[in-house]
Amino acid sequence: MEKVVNLCKRRGFVFPSAEIYGGFRSTYDYGPIGVLLLRNVKDAWWRSMVQLRDDVVGIDAAILSPPPIWEASGHLENFHDPLVDCRECKERFRLDKLDDPDTCPNCGAKDSFTEPRQFNLMFKTHAGPIEEKAAEAYLRPETAQGMFTNFANVLNTSRKRPPFGIAQIGKSFRNEITPQNFVFRTREFEQMEMEYFVPPEQADEWYEYWCRERFSWYTDLGIPENQLRLRAHDPGELSHYSNATSDVEFMFPWGWDELEGIANRSDYDLTQHTKHSGEPLDYYDQATDTRYVPFVIEPAAGATRTAMAFLLAAYDEEEVRGEQRTVLRFNHRIAPYKVAVLPLSKKDELRPLAREVLSEVQPHWMADYDETQSIGRRYRRQDELGTPYCITIDFDSLDDNQVTVRERDSMEQDRIPVDDVVEYLRLRLGSV
Ligand code: ATP
To answer: Which residues contact 102 (CB under 8 A, 6 or more apart)?
Structure first.
């Protein structure tokens, strides 16, 4: 874990936010490489959930939202974590996340906890200049409600009918009591959620379907199956809206923990919003002349948490000719850069051809260009970024118009004509 966190800082994946002011309470900024990684995670999700399907459409709803939404969703009443303080060391914990509820994991004191207090996780703010009750607003703690409140809008404009889904990627905010484990649990994070509206009698079947689909999304993108599991919630663990939930869990350095929850939310959300808004959120099925409130199957994943899992799963160290090599073995779709163009030396003669190769690949794939340091060190750097292919331009290239392409995992090299570079990479990278 520490190695991955160090690499993230050293190579520009993730920086502590507001670092020059001493950092700010478990918030993080994504650097030049991290922003590419995170974007690739979100693009891979969008591709699989929206682009490759004709039964799911996307939206991008507002983050600021008025209290009635959270009244209806149950978040004002139920979105609490039980908070306890250790009387000895004054540390604060979430009671439901403690291995032993009688022992402080910080100082080891026994029976030192205060009575649990319920703490609402939503960030409250005010819309407009006056901080009065009527101006209260919340930063959304999940993206899901935007899909429910737009159910009728989407139904009326998209020509979709159940079973169909609405997908969204965006920031959510939770005033977590104990943000921890790097970007695993932060107060500001990104989610990738989809609400799939189905006829009630089909809910069980679609729930099973989405559990399978979502599990294989992670394995298809290179997370080994033995580092993943699908865990069904016990009845006592279910959220207030859910009648079945399974989590996709990843083997983090501290043990199994959640990447995504897939829930059968029944007709809870649409019914609640109908009650609170007065707008009917149901579906009239002409074929059977029936009106019903669809059930919702929701796969809800965290983009930032998933990016971290991809980093951990990809991290590898090996010895190569007596030297240690660190390499991120990302799936091509997830890799921040797909290609790096590396002129062998900084000398002016190599630059024109190197830049020509760069401009050949740039329209197709995210490419890095680097001409400083020894070629060995530059390969090491690209290995640590997880770049699948490095193209080296040397002095022979000027005579034979050929370049060397090095593959990240095998480190094997091919010598190919400059004119074939795009085709060579297309065969190996596809359209990622
Ligand atoms: P947890 O039990 O870890 O607090 P949760 O069950 O409350 O999570 P959901 O409400 O199901 O989480 O949110 C869906 C997904 O959003 C989670 O699986 C996770 O990937 C992500 N997520 C939730 N809270 C956070 C957070 N504080 N930081 C980063 N990602 C988060």
So the answer is: 110, 111, 113
Alpha carbons 297 and 204: distance in angstroms, whole number: 9
**Residue 170 parent element (H or E):** strand 164-173
142 CB less than 6 Å from ligand 1?
A: yes
Residues 37 and 335: their CA atoms lie apart, in Å, by 6
How many angstroms separate the alpha carbon of residue 303 from the centre of ligand 1?
10
DSSP for 14-64 reads: EEETTGGGT--TT-EEE-TTHHHHHHHHHHHHHIIIIIT-SSEEE----SE
List pLDDT tens digits, range 215-255.
Answer: 999 999 999 999 999 999 998 888 877 889 999 999 999 99
- Cα-to-centroid distance, 51 and ligand 1 (Å): 25
Q: What type of residue is 408?
A: R
97 Cβ contact list (under 8 Å, min separation 6): 178
Domains of the chain (ranges plus CATH)? 2-73+127-311 (3.30.930.10), 80-120 (no CATH), 337-429 (3.40.50.800)
The whole-angstrom separation of Cα 387 and Cα 366 is 10
Taking the centre of ligand 1 as the mean of its atom positions, its distance from the CA of residue 266, in whole angstroms, is 20
Determine whether the shortest distance from the Cβ of 302 to ligand 1 is under 6 A. Answer: yes
Per residue in 261-314, pLDDT (tens digit) is: 999 999 999 999 999 999 999 999 999 999 999 999 999 999 999 999 999 999
The number of the ligand 1 atom at minimal distance from the alpha carbon of 301 is: 15
Atom of ligand 1 nearest to the CA of 174: 27
Backbone angles phi, psi at 150, to 5 degrees: -100, 10
* Rounded Cα distance, 219 and 227, in Å: 9
DSSP one-letter code for 350: G
